[in-house]
Amino acid sequence: MALIRNVSTFIGFDSEYEEAGIVVFGCPFDGTTSFRPGTRFAPSVMRDESYGLETYSPYLDMDLSDYNLFDAGDLEFPFGNTKKVLDIINSFTLKIVEDKKIPIMIGGEHLVTLPVVKAVYDEYKDLHILHFDAHTDLREDYMGEELSHATVIRRIWEFLGDDRIYQFGIRSGERQEFEWAKKHTKLNKFNYDGLEEAIKEIGKKPVYVTIDLDVFDPSIFPGTGTIEPGGISFSDMMHIMNLIKSLNIVGADIVELSPHYDRSGTSTAVACKVLRELTLAIIAEKQS
After folding, report:
1. Farthest CA pair distance, the chain
2. Count of Cβ atoms closer than 10 Å to residue 248 Cβ
3. What are 238's strand-pairing partners?
4. pLDDT of 149-192, one tens digit each?
5. What distance lies between CA 206 and its chain's CA centroid?
6. Does the structural domain 21-287 have CATH classification 3.40.800.10?
7. In this predicted model, what pLDDT tens digit does every residue of 101-153 receive, in sequence order?
8. For the chain, which residues make up each domain, given as ranges?
């Protein structure tokens, strides 16, 4: 049975499921947030605020309205059962992947990336990860919990293995995480130096892109739960999008917007624009 288009859609995502090549959906979950909660509200707020944008990107000279894009809305989750939430996300993503469509997930906290990547990995065993974030997310556990937004990349590594995860913008984490990364991931501190080399190494292998929006400097993006001074600029992110458009991206997400911590709406506007550019960067490679 085909999915039915959400009543309220992100701008430009108003095609029907059958004809769409890309499917966006929201995961409004922040049950393991370690500091300030609120990311559960991001997907719905982003849909409303997206209509302050145009569908056209002058950065990539592409327009969302030229493509078939589908918005499936937000998934519904039970309270207090993290594992069940992850199972719901995984099953939903599996359907998208099995139907030969590309999933783009809007979080939610970063843990919701785990089941999406698992579903994409089931289809693409040579999957590589580009991870943009302020935090390592490489802890073995957080206060005894193995499933946390502080452990998500470590959990992904457990099935991907070494040298498949490229991390950029990282400027916070425990000493042990940085030491562990030296042997198991390709971690770039503070900025995105090395991205061009990573793109060359990956070539046309399948790639999943996960963007924790706290990778931005908080002067640009204060609307997040765990603010880390430093970080990249919006211009940096647009340069990143121009670089990754050559990659074979088979899945992606943006996470960790907590819209109510930025009453100006600036953070939400930034998140919406990142989603637009990420979508078009994915499409660009498919057309080349």
Report:
1. 48
2. 15
3. none
4. 889 999 999 999 999 999 999 999 999 999 999 999 999 999 99
5. 15
6. yes
7. 999 999 999 999 999 999 999 999 999 999 999 999 999 877 778 778 889 99
8. 21-287
